[in-house]
């Protein structure tokens, strides 16, 4: 269900009440509609886990062709951390370290990606807002234990993003790789689409809690992992997620890194 | 694929080498067979998350009839934490606080459950072993970042388990509930089946890292969440898991509990 709210909102309270009302309507109507079809369609799918990427598992065996069967919208990266990945309307794009954009062949692979079949439960338009302000408004109205896919289109007076260059073996940690191979882009007056997620704290180690957004300019000349923006006009679409599927990375490197901590610690809580 | 290893193993080294060989054979053969069918069949499915149960979300909206469509093997509990849940060969059983066993109607609901369509990759028989000894042997040979469903059948000289009584509203935390409503069973010379999982540390907050087993006696007269056992003969079946699906608890209580911590903390690691 898509609900358009083409009002010009200036008062924060009005914003909060309106988005709350529309989200609740969207979610309740959606849940009743869900009963007629397989629930998996409203789930996020992800290949590999963020802690593996952080530990240097930079290769995976999932092709982009396979990824597209799991969702038409999302974010991630490519093997060797060769740029930022964004999926919008079923197309996969690579934002390279030099800021250029490529459509990517289905035969290329990803080391980590998070996708969903995007279907907005709520849509609203907001003007003159920074990313930080928008995030605070969304956190104030969206239940903290739920998961959301968020798609935004608009005009950005300023937008700061990055993309990494590809790593070479032996792979370092992601932090060390980004320290040397992260290229920053300071964009001005750019029109484009933002894809990403708002995820809860309990998904830590597997995905990124909080907001995580990638950008693709409409002219396909810039993009990247978003650090900050100021938007003059923004259409925000929010899609509440019913759950998620994690497919473990089948590359041999996945079993070689040390992810394991506190095994058995959790069990003590229920004994 | 089921591989039977009916040897009498006495030396630890022999045990380790043999299980390693059989597991590797099982997994490689399984992966090539998986390509012909949807990969979801080899995934664990879970309804709700462990941190919600710990925080007192003791009700859920998933019926046992729905749960059975997600797997024929697994563990969990029922609404109100009314006993321990075990699924084996497609049947759902309740181990009540008084130690009695019930088959449960499909219309009952669960607040949390973890299930899979069980298909052993490896099977071995081992004699005269405690749970602690068995877990140490398995941890020594199974890659720590992977996930496993584990089914065991045998004769237990001793087995200690528990089952909780149902909670009443307002629900306390699980820890507080178990402190008052946990009933211990010290079983002797019992034959039955153990169902459970070995899960990695990164699944913390969502599920229970490490080993987690429930028991059902063959005569359906005892069972429960296992604390310890000594087995005289045990057939151990291990099923490597490709990934997992988490369906968020749709009960209204899920949005009311405070699970949220360290939002945005993780994002800092990749910026």
TrEMBL record, chains A, B:
One of its GO terms (molecular function) is acetolactate decarboxylase activity. It catalyses: (2S)-2-acetolactate + H(+) = (R)-acetoin + CO2. It is an enzyme of class 4 (lyase). Pathway: Polyol metabolism; (R,R)-butane-2,3-diol biosynthesis; (R,R)-butane-2,3-diol from pyruvate: step 2/3. Keywords: Acetoin biosynthesis, Decarboxylase, Lyase. GO terms for biological process: acetoin biosynthetic process. Coiled coil: none annotated. Its EC number is 4.1.1.5. It comes from the Bacteria. It holds the Pfam family AAL_decarboxy. InterPro entries: Acetolactate_a_deCO2ase (IPR005128). NCBIfam families: acetolac_decarb (TIGR01252). Belongs to the alpha-acetolactate decarboxylase family. This is Alpha-acetolactate decarboxylase. It comes from Larkinella terrae. The gene is budA.
């Amino acid at each position: 269900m898509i609900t358009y709210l083409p009002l010009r909102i200036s008062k924060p309270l009005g914003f909060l009440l309106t988005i709350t009302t529309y989200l609740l309507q969207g979610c309740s109507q959606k849940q009743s509609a869900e009963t007629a079809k397989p629930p998996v369609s409203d789930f996020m799918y992800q290949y590999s886990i963020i802690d593996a990427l952080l530990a240097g598992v930079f290769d995976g065996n999932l092709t982009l062709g396979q990824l597209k069967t799991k969702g038409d919208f999302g974010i991630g990266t490519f093997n060797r951390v060769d740029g930022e990945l964004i999926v919008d309307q079923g197309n996969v794009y690579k934002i390279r370290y030099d800021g250029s954009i490529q459509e990517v062949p289905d035969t290329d692979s990803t080391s980590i990606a998070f996708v969903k079949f995007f279907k907005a439960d709520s849509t609203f338009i907001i003007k003159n807002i920074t990313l930080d302000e928008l995030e605070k408004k969304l956190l104030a109205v969206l239940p903290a234990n739920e998961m959301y896919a968020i798609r935004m289109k608009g005009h950005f007076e300023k937008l700061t993003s990055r993309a990494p260059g590809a790593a070479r073996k032996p792979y370092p940690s992601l932090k060390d790789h980004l320290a040397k191979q992260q290229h920053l882009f300071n964009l001005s007056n750019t029109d484009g689409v933002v894809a990403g997620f708002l995820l809860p704290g309990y998904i830590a180690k597997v995905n990124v809690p909080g907001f995580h957004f990638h950008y693709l300019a409409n002219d396909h000349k810039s993009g990247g992992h978003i650090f900050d923006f100021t938007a003059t006009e923004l259409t925000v679409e929010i899609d509440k997620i019913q759950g998620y599927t994690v497919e473990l990375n089948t590359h041999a490197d996945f079993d070689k890194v040390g992810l394991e901590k506190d095994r058995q610690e959790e069990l003590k809580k229920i004994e």
